[in-house]
Amino acid sequence: MTNTFYNQFDQAELEPRDEDYRSTFQRGRDRLIHNAAFRRLQAKTQVFLSGEYDFYRTRLTHSIEVAQIAGSIARYLNSTSTPLRPDFHIDYALVEATALAHDIGHPPFGHAGENRLHTLMKPWGGFEGNAQTLRLITEIIFTSGRSRRGMNPTRAFMDGVLKYKTLFREWENPKNHFIYDDQKQYLDFVFNGRDFPAAMTPGEERNGFRSLECQIMDWADDTAYSLNDLVDSANAGFITIGKVSRWAADQELTTAESRILDDLIAALGEGNLERVMNRKIGTFVEACTLVEQDNFMSDLTNRYRFGVELDPDVVREQKLYSRLAVSLVFRSPQVCQLEYKGGHMLERLYKALTAHYLGDHHSPLSLLSRDFEAEMSRAGDDSQLRARIICDYLAGMTDGFAIRIYKRLFDPDFGSIVDLV
Fold first, then answer.
1. How many helices (H) and strands (E) does the chain have?
2. Which residue has the higher pLDDT, 217 or 362?
3. Which of 63, 85, 311, 362 is 20 to 30 A from 46, comparing alpha carbons?
4. What is the DSSP letter of 52?
């Protein structure tokens, strides 16, 4: 049965190719899963340093959970929304691909790594995890049988991961939430060359303009880190009855917020926090309602004709969990010290590589892998492109690989000529 929710505009790929037994959305999901950039997420930090304990979530397990939640949201909307029906529905493969891909652009060492790379890359156009995800699927990830690099994503897939639509140069003081300036070509492709309305100014307002699948992915991501990461934090000893009680005493809480924290404390005391949080996933899924909307893209695609409206009470609960995690986990000395160390290692690696590859006289020493050395050769004397290639190299590292390269370059007692990586 043909799904008429999506048209040729949605399914158009950057480079047209022959059909096979899969839909274009299924091909995009398959290409992503069978790729090293996706597999490397298993060794990248989610909340706690990758590999520290085997039960903590990594970027990979987090992404799988986001995909499961996003798929559940799509199924819930398909079954409860009057406009949707078997031949007019949200595509599961597209939603899952969008969710699985949402973090592949993130560097090692979590958000601290992202912030440090952005600071270092500001003279060369900045660094942003979402922009790097777009760069990976359009320019870096290689798919066999193609005449250009990149996954050859569909317009709908690109738009699904495109949380931010403000260019680096359009921010007065860009900190995050942007895409790279040279990615305007992909914005033009996604929106078929249409300009944003004058009222939709660059910044948070423009970034908030998202396709239906992007909205689903974003809420699934919020759900996963608010609920599942809270469980990891409790297992690690950061979320305890005493700490939550003391934190609550210092906050100005509504009656509803106090009740939520009382339930959290009770779950901690009974030792069943994970079961309680798992049940809440269903509540967060059912907080979604499909709504029809009118905007400058709604005449071209149902991905903008429809959107998701969230139950405000559930959103407030999610934000409360997020505030709690920031205070008790992300600002804790233990996590901050590890983040500082990770950022320090990335900065030393970046400065060593830029000194080596961006100077007037390039050294004959090869500090990068063979593939990246080839990229440097093709870049010639283009310092902007060379800096971006170094950034690609660092952003693609797992936590463990970054630590090994750091030791090999700076620790005299580490490393051997027979090391393979």
1. 21, 2
2. 217
3. 311
4. S
Which residue's structure tokens are 């440090």?
116
Give the DSSP letter of residue 140.
Answer: I
Amino acid at 218: D
Average pLDDT over residues 281-285: 97
Q: Which residues contact 64 (CB under 8 A, 6 or more apart)?
A: 100
Domains along the sequence of the chain with CATH: 8-210 (1.10.3210.10), 213-333 (no CATH), 340-410 (no CATH)
Amino acid letter, residue 386: R
Report, in angstroms and rounded to the nearest whole number, the Rg of the chain calculated over CA atoms. Answer: 22
Highest-pLDDT range among 33-37, 195-199, 329-333: 195-199
- Residue 21 is given by DSSP the state S
Distance between CA 60 and CA 399 in Å, rounded?
Answer: 13
255, exposed or middle or buried, with CB in 10 Å at 0-12, 13-18, 19+? exposed
3-state class (DSSP) for residue 5: coil
Residues 6+ apart with CB under 8 A from 177: 128, 130, 163, 164, 166, 204, 207
59-80 helix and 212-223 helix, angle to the nearest 10 degrees: 120
Q: Which 3 state secondary structure label does DSSP give 390?
A: helix
What tokens appear for 119 in the block?
Answer: 């600071």
Whole-angstrom Cα distance, residue 353 to residue 356?
A: 5
Q: Are 362 and 345 in contact (CB under 8 A)?
A: no
Question: What tokens does 72 get?
Answer: 């559940």
- The tens digit of pLDDT for each residue in 56-73 reads 678 888 899 999 999 999
pTM listed for this prediction: 0.94
Give me the phi and psi of 165, to 5 degrees please: -130, 15
The predicted pLDDT at position 175 comes to 78
Residue 206: which of 255, 246, 171 has the closest Cα?
Answer: 171
φ and ψ at residue 182, rounded to 5 degrees: -75, 0
The pair of structure tokens assigned to 292 is 């029809």
Alpha carbon distance 178, 285 (integer Å): 28
Mean pLDDT of the chain: 90
What lies within 8 Å, CB to CB, of 198 at 6+ separation is none
Quick check: 147 pLDDT over 70? no
Residues 37 and 176 sit within 8 Å (Cβ to Cβ): no
